[in-house]
Design brief:
mainly alpha; globular; 80 residues
Length: 80
Amino acid sequence: MGWYVLYQLLSIVELLIVARVILSWVASPVSRNPFVQFVRGVTDPILSPIRSVLPRTGMFDLSPMIALFAIYLIQQMIAR
């Protein structure tokens, strides 16, 4: 039961990371929208450490892709 809950939480985090990517295209970086702030508040603790170790790639932020891949790997381990 506990592994199922963790798997589902990771699925929610995946959706929030995807939402963050989409919001980065359409929302202002200083948006005061509560939904935008919520998504950033949940995903920043995950993406910031990844950004700190990645080399700068200009305007492209690869941290969401790496985070999604890591979540996928964790989910695959849980599923087994």
